Amino acid sequence: MADTSDTRTPAQIEADIKRRREVLAETLDEIGVRVHPKTIMDDAKARVASEIDHTLGRAYVGVNRAVSEVKGRFVDEEGSPRLERIVPVALVVVGVVGLIALGTRRRGR
After folding, report:
1. CA distance 73 to 89
2. Which of 12, 22, 66, 78, CA to CA, is 20 to 30 A from 100?
3. Which residues have a Cβ under 8 Å from the Cβ of 13 and sit 6 or more positions away?
């Protein structure tokens, strides 16, 4: 059997009830804020912004790594350009641009 005797005074019981009501009111207010549409939208916006920041950060690191790799192919350890690699690439670029310009010129006629 459970002990149902309560040694508290009526004033103590009333104070306990008042305190529990205040705690319950705070809890209900917090729940109301959490389920409010504006709070839900703000939380969703914050999550999306965080994900975008994370994605952009990963993209930046990837691009930075790619640029470093390309730079490593065209510049030696001392920072001097590697002409034996730069000249052929430059010639190919000039050739492709020339072909594009020639093709565009022919279509214009």
Report:
1. 11
2. 66
3. 6
Per-residue pLDDT of 21-49, as tens digits, reads 999 999 999 999 999 999 999 999 999 99
Q: Is 75 exposed, middle or buried (0-12, 13-18, 19+ CB in 10 A)?
A: middle
Exposed, middle or buried: residue 96 (CB in 10 Å: 0-12, 13-18, 19+)? exposed
Residues 104/97, Cβ–Cβ less than 8 Å: no
Q: Provide the 3-class DSSP secondary structure of residue 75.
A: strand
Work out the number of other CB atoms within 10 angstroms of the CB of residue 86: 13
Both tokens of 17, joined, read 């009830």
Q: Would you state the pLDDT for residue 2?
A: 54
Partners of 81 in beta bridges: 75
